[in-house]
Amino acid sequence: xxxxxxxxxxxxxxxxxxxxxxxxxxxxxxxxxxxxxxxxxxxxxxxxxxxxxxxxxxxxxxxxxxxxxxxxxxxxxxxxxxxxxxxxxxxxxxxxxxxxxxxxxxxxxxxxxxxxxxxxxxxxxxxxxxxxxxxxxxxxxxxxxxxxxxxxxxxxxxxxxxxxxxxxxxxxxxxxxxxxxxxxxxxxxxxxxxxxxxxxxxxxxxxxxxxxxxxxxxxxxxxxxxxxxxxxxxxxxxxxxxxxxxxxxxxxxxxxxxxxxxxxxxxxxxxxxxxxxxxxxxxxxxxxxxxxxxxxxxxxxxxxx
Length: 305
Hints:
The chain is α/β, with parallel strands linked by helices. 16% of the residues lie in helices and 37% in strands. The protein folds into 2 domains: 3-131 and 269-289, 3-Layer(aba) Sandwich (Rossmann fold); 134-268, Probable inorganic polyphosphate/atp-NAD kinase, domain 2 (Tumour Suppressor Smad4, Sandwich), CATH 2.60.200.30. It has a 7-stranded mixed sheet, with no helix packed on it. The longest helix has 16 residues, at 13-28.
């Protein structure tokens, strides 16, 4: 019996109701179906009195989700997709992402396309696009205090008020550099269209084997976005006292103390996206962000007498 999964945003009534309908339809077609809410992939935040909230990367996978699963249907917006990627990436399960949210930059289909999309998935008539992910760890000496998979970006900054931070950053074997800024972003190509884009970083097409480091509001004209091979690990040493806060993919994080370091490297796991047609990144940029749209011609100027 083939096996499928459903991951849905249980905060959205439409996603919840569609999840039940899909489960019934797949079960009637002879599929073994496992269903879970996306909240299991949301990392949560550490509290001041409990600065470490450590769940191992492989510990987030829901019961029943494993490498035998043919695909997982993800119902929600981009936040749901980010959470779902952490749930299933260690098992290599392809995801069909269905937009029930707003922007839906990471989603493949809309609800009105779901019946046909489901038929394609059941028939195996699709392509799979792998997107690179990051392994993010907070280290204290040789001990892992916190870790997470990251599809978009890791952000490190001070709280509760934004102010200047100092970071010592070592990329691979290269000499460490000192950056003074409101914060630091390290993103994947997928994350290049998210927070790092707003902070002035470049758009990077998926599949390019690079990462980028983007200072947030740097204190120097010399501190600008840096793109480097994703084979290079990154170590970030905070200089600030008493602590910084780290946020991964916008939905979880932990405190980083002066004695800690943040370690990032390309993860051995990838987020696997089902594509119902050949991936076309520029089309998504145009439809979602307006990139490359033709300019509107200005009206002819009126000659004054």
